Amino acid sequence: MERVEQHASFGGRQEVWRHESRTLGCTMKVGIYLPPAALRGERCPVVYWLSGLTCTEQNFITKAGAQQHAAQHGLIVVVPDTSPRGDGVADDPSYDLGQGAGFYLNATQAPWAAHFRMEDYVVHELSAWVEQHFPTNARRSIFGHSMGGHGALTLALRHPGRYASVSAFSPIVAPSQVPWGRKAFAAYLGEDQGAWAAHDAVSLIATASERLPLLVDQGEADEFLATQLKPELLQAACDAVGHPLTLRMHPGHDHSYYFIASFIGEHLAFHADALKARA
Ligand SMILES: N[C@@H](CCC(=O)N[C@@H](CS)C(=O)NCC(=O)O)C(=O)O
């Protein structure tokens, strides 16, 4: 492993690391924000951020403005890339499949299955690596944007007990029912839609064994709202079983990091409260 960037930030340090992933079979870059408390040697909880289509670790660490809030709450923020990377890794010319579009699941279909194992990477290998090398206290929360919002919701629902809290900006809530998700699921999981529900937040809500409250923020001027995101499907699924959901619609906000930056402080405060309650 090798540190490839470090920048002083709000009394802490924004770092980028490169490490070998056995799960993905390639080298991965990861953004790690260490708050002042971590630099003083205190053990801090970790919040995992999952980005959307086309992103690397750079989008969030340079545009979300998370560092000042993570510093204030004493949170380590870990930002993985959105897929395996490299010349030996399968890819597709479109922006919504292949590298930059891993969808936070383990692919079962050729040519993707060899490297596209983002669920195992994020849930198991990355957290073990983080907890081995950084001053953590083994408490975790998870959040993300768009494809990464889908990732945060589904990984929290699929791994009850692992995360203290979950939230999302503009998430894909029902990938089985929208073009981005249907294209990716057909490629990664196969045409048999029986396998899709296990990676679809709206489907998973019905049978969730842990009713972890969901915080979701969505811009009303988001260009993908009606075609790809459909938060009303998540609202209906939560209403049907009494799953706690706070869905906040924001007039004027689009799908960009300007939206994320506007509410990132509230999301980190939400996670900090939940992580403290677990202490
Ligand atoms: N029109 C966009 C679609 C992809 C997109 O909007 N990606 C979102 C996540 S779904 C994003 O975070 N983009 C990078 C950024 O805004 O920094 C593109 O082709 O790049």
From TrEMBL:
GO terms (BP aspect): formaldehyde catabolic process
GO molecular function, one term: carboxylic ester hydrolase activity
Keywords tagged on the record: Hydrolase, Serine esterase
SUPFAM superfamilies: alpha/beta-Hydrolases
The keyword DNA-binding belongs to this UniProt entry's keyword annotation: no
Catalytic activity: S-formylglutathione + H2O = formate + glutathione + H(+)
Entry keyword annotation includes Hydrolase: yes
EC number(s) reported in the record: 3.1.2.12
GO cellular component: cytosol
InterPro entries cross-referenced by the UniProt entry: AB_hydrolase_fold, Esterase-like, S-formylglutathione_hydrol
Active-site residues, Swiss-Prot/TrEMBL: S146 (charge relay system), D222 (charge relay system), H255 (charge relay system)
Family of this protein: Belongs to the esterase D family.
Function: Serine hydrolase involved in the detoxification of formaldehyde.
Protein name: S-formylglutathione hydrolase
Upper taxonomic lineage: Bacteria, Pseudomonadati, Pseudomonadota, Betaproteobacteria, Burkholderiales
Gene behind the chain: fghA
